[in-house]
Design goal:
Number of helices: 6
Shape: rod-shaped
CATH class of the largest domain: Mainly Alpha
Mean pLDDT: 83
Radius of gyration: 44 Å
Number of domains: 2
Structural class: mainly alpha
Order of helices and strands: HHHHHH
Largest sheet: none
CATH topology of the largest domain: Multidrug-efflux Transporter Regulator, Chain: A, Domain 2
CATH architecture of the largest domain: Orthogonal Bundle
Length: 179
């Protein structure tokens, strides 16, 4: 099961979730100056933050509060939230920037298996090349040793043959007395 950092909902999903029409959500966005993020195709998408705000607006509308009062309460809520916030040590981002940053991070995590496979493949290739080079080097060393031994055996064989030839060429008495 894939883990998501931030769930984004379409306007249709939000409409069903909070039980108001899509047109009403669009109207509230205009009436209350809501900062609803949009994707590359300019389609709205909603996170839990926007949905919470819309549910809050719906509750106030259900209590028959006027748009002016709701706007005032939303502005007061935003002002109160800004005042109670301590000075952040990181720059503040708009909701759309936060959402895009989180999506970028999520995409990065999604590419980890591919990167892992690529690294494993590269490591396998490096190990194969290293083993191949090591084996080739060892074979070359062994071939040199074998060539030297073969050369020594060939020399010894020639010397033995020369000695046997000399022995044959010596007379019977010389062979008898080892002279």
């Amino acid at each position: 099961m894939e883990e998501e950092f931030l769930k984004a909902y379409s306007i249709k999903e939000v409409s069903n979730k909070i039980e108001v029409t899509e047109g009403t959500i669009r109207q509230w966005e205009k009436d209350f100056n809501l900062d609803i993020p949009r994707n590359e195709e300019n389609a709205r998408y909603f996170t839990e933050i926007e949905i919470e705000t819309l549910e809050h607006i719906k509750t106030m509308r259900d209590k028959n509060l006027s748009k002016a009062v709701i706007k005032e309460l939303l502005d007061k809520r935003d002002t109160d939230a800004a005042q109670t916030q301590t000075k952040p040590s990181v720059p503040q981002l708009r909701q759309t920037e936060v959402t895009e940053t989180l999506r970028s991070i999520q995409k990065s995590f999604e590419t980890f298996p591919e990167i892992k496979e690529q690294i494993i493949s590269e490591l396998k290739d490096e190990v194969k090349e290293s083993v191949h080079n090591e084996l080739e080097s060892n074979f070359e060393k062994q071939n040199k040793i074998l060539e030297e031994k073969l050369e020594n055996i060939t020399k010894a064989q020639k010397e033995l043959e020369e000695k046997q030839t000399e022995e044959k060429n010596k007379g019977f008495l010389a062979r008898l007395f080892n002279k």
